[in-house]
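Lay summary

Proteins are chains of building blocks that fold into shapes. Our project writes down both the chain and a compact code for its shape. Here are two examples, one after the other.
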Amino acid sequence: MTSTRLRPLYIIPARGGSKGIPYKNIKQLGGRPLIAYSIDVALSLAGGNPERVILSTDDPKIASVAESLGLPVPYRRPASLATDTSGSREVIIDAMDYADSQGIGYDCVVLLQPTTPFRNAQDVQQALELFDPEDTDMVVSVAEAASNPYYNCFETDPVSGYLHISKGDGLLTRRQDAPQAWEYNGAVYVINPASIRKMPLGMFPRRKPSVMPKERSVDLDTPLDWAVAEAILANQTNCQTKRQ
């Protein structure tokens, strides 16, 4: 399914520690472990070839669940990269180093975080189509920002303490007149391997957006986010039942 011009390496990061939602990567969502949704997408895009999909985890319980879902987990993330302060860049590079040691060739890295379960294979494919290793550091999935810095996003003046608009002159009276603003939704990152070895993701000068709809951009970080996701799945099930 993936474009024949690219050889992606899919990385699914899933450490054991999680304070907001304990063991959220394997917590049941809609009757399935959360991580199952990302594994399904990665394996389908990899043509069923599991060696191109690396689960980056330090936790044997998470690894066991992934293997029960059809993804072998020969690699283990070092404990030093599984702390609350571990950076995504170091985690990605360590997984790349493992792939290199196994002779797995790739020209881009696709990071699929388990916490965006409604992302589908078409969303990833769309991002891959936008990626060009010659002129792109990263393609990142985005959704329309909830707050627009030209319209309803404000900052506090450090001297007066009054609010002022984040960008622009503050004279816009309609949101649709403001420039569009995007926010990362955490679903898809297509990364140039050479770029990430040179600099952190936040310093990439050549980032392209891949727009996703709000309904597939739910990012699970809190119990409230989880409740929203369960409600979405329940609604989808009800709609499917009514159509049958």
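And here is the second example, written the same way.
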Amino acid sequence: MVRDNVLSLVGIAKKANKIASGEYQTETAVKSGAACLVIISSEASGNTRKKFQNMCAFYQVPAYLYGTRQELGAASGCQYRAVIAVRDPGLAKAIEKRLAEVMSR
């Protein structure tokens, strides 16, 4: 049930136009300082994972491995997405709180 809450919050962020989805948009959001949270699909390739984990560590943006490419894509209004960035601080904190609940289980 908590898993659905994470994805529904991502959907709310999408409707509020506070999502950068896909590798290029997410990279731009992180490097410009607009990203507050990055979610990387657990199905993302090793290179994509490493690239975004290192980038997020450098720019001090929290990054989480979560969900499948299809789940992230559906929540962000696309078919498949390996990585998304949340650009709203309030929504990012809410999503991060839900992700912490999931990770602690």
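What can we say about the second shape? The beta strands are 19-21, 37-40, 63-65, 83-86.
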